[in-house]
Amino acid sequence: MLKVGLVQTRTPATQSAALAHTAPLIREAAAAGATLVVTPECSNILQRDRTRLFAALTSLDDDAAVGGFRALAAELSIWLLIGSALVRRDDGKAANRSILVGPDGGVTATYDKIHMFDVDLPTGERHRESTAYEAGDKAVTAEAAGAMLGLTICYDVRFPPLHAALARAGAQVMTVPAAFTRPTGEAHWETLLRARAIETGSFVLAAAQGGTHEDGRSTWGHSVAIGPWGDILGKADHDEPGVVLADLDLAAVAKARSAIPALENARAFTGP
Fold it and tell me: What dihedral do alpha carbons 35, 105, 225, 123 form, nearest 10°?
């Protein structure tokens, strides 16, 4: 049995404040027995003002929050998935990057968000991730705490082919760290996550940002862990910072996939 902890945060607008905000929650999850802890998207900084944000971004190696999280993973001897950090790439462009840290504090895998959230919402909010971040182009699986993870970030949840590809590559647990807006979160968050779990016969771990942030944005929260049959294993029914714990029986993945072999039964087709 794998005990996991999902950390729900309300990340501030600087890396140092983000570390101070999130570290106690990671400690809480580890103290409760979690050997794999997952934080949300944008765990290192949330800053709506693009000028201030890009002035604050650093490389992965130089980011104060990422460095602090890595040291904490080593101190606590846990696997830590930094759901995502906003960092500067070697070419100077920005990336929304998921970072898997081992119990020794070393980075064992990274994934750059593939799908960019470009939308005009009925509320008047306008989001253009593609103008800020360079999209990734490679799906990533990685082993952690005896489980094979399929790494995704937020908006990726709306693209079933990515999750099917990860499952076919051996992923048993889909990680979906997020900073969902409140309107889309209320309407779609849990439904999408349960669909991805059921379609692929996988666990889904969705650690989320929640509440009204320092920069004025509002995020949905409601972090949740879901089983391969679509069952809810643990969830937060709110948007406050906190920890959600869940126990994963990895044998349930094979059981679900043998009961409904959708991954094997899928066929190529032409048209319409």
Answer: 160
- 113 catalytic? Reply is yes
User: Residue 124 burial by CB count (10 A; 0-12/13-18/19+): exposed, middle or buried?
Assistant: exposed
pTM listed for this prediction = 0.96
Q: Which member of 3, 42, 93, 113 is catalytic?
A: 113
Q: Is 42 a catalytic residue?
A: no
Q: How confident is the model at residue 147 (pLDDT cuts 50, 70, 90)?
A: very high
Contact 40, 239 (CB under 8 A): no
Question: What are the pLDDT digits (tens) for 34-84?
Answer: 999 999 999 999 998 989 999 999 999 999 999 999 999 999 999 999 999
Query: All domains of the chain, ordered by start, with CATH?
Result: 2-263 (3.60.110.10)
Bond before 261 cis per omega within 30 degrees: no
The one catalytic residue in 93, 125, 154, 264 is: 154
Candidates 28, 41, 214, 235; catalytic one: 41
